[in-house]
Amino acid sequence: MSNPSPLLIDRLLVPAWEQHSYWIFDLDGTLLDFAPQPDAVEVPSSLLSDLAELSRRVEHRVAVISGRALQDLERLIPLSALQLAGNHGAEWRVDGHYGQVSFPAAVKDTWAVVRQQCKHLVASVPGVMLEDKGFTCTLHVRQLDRAAREKVKEELARVTSSLPGIALRPAAHAWELYPTFCPNKGTMVRKLLSPMPPTVRPYVFGDDWTDEDSFLAAPHGVTVVVGNRRPTAARYALPHPAALRSLLHEVARHHRLSKD
Ligand SMILES: [Mg+2]
Hints:
Layout (H helix, E strand, L loop, with lengths): L4 E2 L2 H10 L2 E5 L19 H12 L3 E6 L4 H7 L6 E4 L4 E4 L2 E4 L4 H20 L4 E4 L4 E4 L5 H17 L3 E6 L2 E6 L5 H9 L7 E6 L4 H6 L5 E5 L9 E3 L2 H19 L1
This protein binds magnesium ion.
């Protein structure tokens, strides 16, 4: 873990002409600003056209790896040229082919119990929102005060301690329950990069604790933490998603100019 340096546009413009690159982004809090509810996020049309521009170049591949369900990602980022992975890499669309990990029989029943217990919790604590994403369950606590958040955490810790193969992790203003057999984002980063020649340079962007796995999976890449969360394994930092969008816009603008 080190203190990341500010990311400057030169770091992104050099690969625009000279290198084959794999651009790998988290979505919420990285490319997009957070919204009070996950469904309320805004996807700027300029971001979509800049990502499309980036993916049009044969030198570049572009992927989004998110904690959201794949179906949700496809709705928010309707770009068929992008590689998408949902549920932290438990389901994916890579080169147009869909895939997902399969639940071991022993975990299936336990997972059904977890989903049921999450529903009970939501019914008993006002302000908690459940996002059931099939492979993971996220309980959003953004609208709760500190004491209520702690209570939810304790209750979820109690649930996970009684169920084998299920774990709890923090997310942005949320807690997430997940089966431990599921891959993390780093597994997906390695899966995307492994067929690539070693000359392809990864550019990895993320804001959340779960993005640390992505940074660690690309030690030779340009890894960028978005926001103030520390410590981090990322080498570079950007202050907020708008700063990343603005840099990408600049890269896309240079691409467009270089075609003239
Ligand atoms: Mg995020």
